[in-house]
Amino acid sequence: MSNFRFKALEIAQNRQAMQVAAPTERVGDFFGSYTFNNEVMRTLLSPEAYLKVTEAINTNGQIDRGIADEVASAMKSWATSKGATHYTHWFQPLTGETAEKHDAFFDITFDGKAVEKFKGSALVQQEPDASSFPNGGLRNTFEARGYTGWDPSSPAFLMDNGAGGKTLCIPSVFISYTGEALDYKTPLLKALNALDKAATAVCQYFDRNITKVTPTLGPEQEYFVVDRALFYARPDLVLAGRTLFGHAPARGQQLEDHYFGSIPPRVNAFMVDFEFESMKLGMPVRTRHNEVAPGQFEVAPTFEEVNLAVDHNALLMDLMEKIAEKHNLKVLFHEKPFAGVNGSGKHNNWSMGTNTGVNLLAPSTKPKESLRFLTFLVNVVKAVHDNADLLRASIASAGNEHRLGANEAPPAIVSIFLGEALTQALNDLETKSEVTVNKGDNVYYKLGLNRIPSLMRDNTDRNRTSPFAFTGNKFEFRAVGSSANSASTMTVLNAIVADQLNKFKFDLDARLAKGEKKELAIVDILKEYYANSKRILFEGNGYSDEWVEEAARRGLSNIKSSPDALGIFVQPESLALFERTGIMNHAEVESRYEIELEKYIKNVQIESRVMGDLAMNHVVSTALKYQNKLAETARNLVELGMTAEAEPIKDILREISTRVMVIKKGVEAMIESRKKANNVLDTGERAKLYATEVKDHFDLIRYEVDKLEEVVDDEDWPLVKYRELLFVK
Q1: Which of these, 631, 632, 636, 637, lies nearest to 650 by C-alpha position?
Q2: Residue 105 gets which letter from DSSP?
Q3: What percent of the chain has pLDDT over 90?
Q4: Would the pLDDT of 447 be above 70?
Q5: 355 and 262 both lie in a single domain
Q6: 556 with 661, same domain?
Q7: Average pLDDT value for residue range 536-544
Q8: Which of 113, 348, 616, 672 is deepest in the core (most CB within 10 A)?
Q9: Is residue 486 domain-shared with residue 576, that is, in the same domain?
């Protein structure tokens, strides 16, 4: 028991849950205490400055430099009073990670004195070196200049450095020297603005008091937790984020006893710790529980405005990793870190709210409000139907490719679940005959819309197999991967809904110009939209083979490969949609396509290299050493005249030899496939080769390695096993 695996196991088994000191205040007293929030601004800014800042946030307007100086001064005073020594523009480049460059709150004068300094110009704009961030061909590597710009709609916050100091983090956009977006936030903000304008214009047909629509989001974050020592004893977890080998344990998730079970003490202590820190940062995390797979958990927040929710989720993932280290744990955000058990998603719960307090996706008991609800519901259905492939592209990644279509995640086929009652109501709407409305009649009851008020929230069951499910007053997009930045998906979803609402307004205005009754015109348009989109609705089991066949008959896409899915971004229809909504120009979309393909290639390439190294330098070498032991035992038995007793051992020797030979040939073939792919210049074609010819070797090699795990003596096996990784106490 001298190998690294058993040393790691000994360390892990002797760990105890850390004690976490609970705050002495109530949550309301310390929630957001590390954020430069609305309350802090009201206290520290002049009434004029506070009004201008909040007005800019509410209207997507600009803040002039004079006001920025006052805000910067107040922000510095607040931050330094809480122990901050540095500030940074915190942004989200297209690496998929967050980024920051820390600068101190001081400068040196001409006579060598240190003075505190943080001006409005530093708050509004920084110039990080942009040369090493992905740009997808937008600029040359030697052209290093890029700019980060303050996003006042997302509050600045303090991040504890873990060494006694804090850093003021200023959420920011990131653009190139020539103005193209190099981040996730910039297109998202434009998409949210586009939806606000489009949805508000439609709301005006129903209520003139509605002057703003705010999309909301609640991303449920799934993740795995493993012991830190065991994590570092698995090179594939360290380098690839997932286990490339591992035989299924005798007990996995088949008893279904982990879901909502008692949270293991060490994990619970970690959860409590990061929740306290999250609350200080204004992140409204309120739900924690065990997920289905052993070692898998979930944290869920209260709904927030989409941009803030995306920032908070990215920050939460950073925070979880830091807090886990304190507890000698590692958090795994990979979509499929373990074969044979459920993978992890980031369920994006999305809706739209008005400045009058109305959720536009909440059914109502009032006929007029029901028509408004139906208008937005049907337009969302049509938007998803018409742009299903683009929505599929927004969730494409190397990690999510392992999860989609498996037995715990929605399939790659995009469909919508509305529930039996709501689907029936829409069917009634479609098939209802035309009605003449006389003066003085109640138009809503005359149209038959009096049936809708009975549709109350949660009047139908949920469907966890649906990628895009209506859950009472919101849509839950379940297909988003756990490691993803939700901004990509939210940019697409809000863009396609904004575009569809603009089309609806155009169609309705054309009818109104002809003198048609508004309510009748709306119903006729909704009937037409629903008739043309209802094939995307599916109430059944999305995991079944029957659904795959049925979806094909309906003409729905089933894009399984990430490179194929990503190609939808650069289709003419997609490029046109982003351009007419003002979210991204052609160059920005095409650059994202190139970046995502490169990320896919590099992820699969890393997995392939790690797999080859582990197979040959860990598994095969161990198997051959064990084979020598068995061979010596077999020889001794034969020499003792126990030939029959030696036969079972010879069978094992033959099995090891056969499996080692298959592994060696598989690794060699995989390397040749990788070389072939690397010589292809076109990024799209290279990605497809990695998705097929390189990845095609993975399952074969893994199968043989996992079979060897069953044969080789447990004392000799070099890799931490699933039964040791998955059951954290």
Answers
A1: 631
A2: S
A3: 71
A4: no
A5: yes
A6: no
A7: 89
A8: 348
A9: yes
Q: Is residue 430 part of a domain?
A: yes
| Structure-token pair, residue 128 | 């990080």
Domain boundary among 525, 558, 583: 583
Q: Please check whether residue 244 is in contact with residue 337, taking contact to mean a CB–CB distance below 8 angstroms.
A: no
Q: What is the CATH number of the domain that holds 626?
A: 1.20.120.1560
Burial per residue of 265-282, b for 16 or more beta-carbon CB atoms within 10 angstroms, e otherwise: ebbebbbbbbbbbbbbbb
Are 101 and 232 part of one and the same domain? Answer: no
Tokens of 265: 């003490």
Q: Which two tokens stand for residue 569?
A: 């971004």
Tokens matching residue 428: 């009634």
- How long, in residues, is the chain? 729
Query: Given the DSSP bridges, would you call strands 296-301 and 285-290 parallel, antiparallel or unpaired?
Result: antiparallel
Q: 256 with 287, same domain?
A: yes
Q: Is 523 exposed, middle or buried (0-12, 13-18, 19+ CB in 10 A)?
A: buried
The region of weakest confidence among 7-21, 247-261, 449-463 is 449-463
Q: What are residue 87's DSSP bridge partners?
A: 103, 168
| Cα–Cα distance for residue pair 88/91, rounded to 1 Å | 9
Both structure tokens of 145: 């200049």
Q: Within a domain: residue 24?
A: no
Identify the residue whose tokens are 């799934």. 222
Q: Are residues 271 and 164 in the same domain?
A: no
The 10s digit of each residue's pLDDT in 354-399 is: 999 999 999 887 777 889 999 999 999 999 999 999 999 999 999 9
Q: Is 655 exposed, middle or buried (0-12, 13-18, 19+ CB in 10 A)?
A: middle
Among 583, 614, 630, residue at a domain's last position: 583
549 and 631 part of one domain: no
CATH code of 129's domain = 3.10.20.70
* Identity at 141, one-letter amino acid code: T
Phi-psi region at 246: left, alpha or beta (left = phi > 0; alpha = psi -120 to 50): left
Strand partners, 354: 213
Domain count, the chain: 3
Tell me if 611 is assigned to some domain: yes
DSSP of 483-541, one letter per residue? Answer: TS-HHHHHHHHHHHHHHHHHHHHHHHHHHHHTT--HHHHHHHHHHHHHHHHGGGB--S-
Q: Per the structure block, which two tokens stand in for 463?
A: 């469907």
Domain around 539: 211-492+507-583
- Return all residues near 192 (Cβ < 8 A) that are at least 6 apart: 214, 215, 306, 307, 494
Q: Measured between alpha carbons, how far is 524 from 530 in angstroms, rounded to an integer?
A: 10
246 contacts 709 by C-beta, under 8 angstroms: yes
d(CA 461, CA 467): 15
The span from the CA of 120 to the CA of 109, in Å, is: 19
- Name which of 690, 679, 696 is nearest 601 in CA terms: 690
Burial class (CB in 10 A: 0-12, 13-18, 19+), 108: exposed
What pLDDT, in 10s, does the model give residues 449-494?
554 444 444 555 556 788 999 998 999 999 999 999 999 999 999 9
DSSP tally for the chain: helices H, then strands E: 27, 17
For residue 444, what pLDDT is reported? 54
pLDDT of res. 462: 58
> Is 484 inside a domain boundary?
yes
CB 152 within 8 A of CB 311: no
One domain for residues 486 and 533: yes
Query: How many other CB atoms are there within 10 angstroms of residue 42's CB atom?
Result: 13
What's the pLDDT tens digit per position in 562-601?
A: 999 999 999 999 999 999 999 999 999 999 999 999 999 9
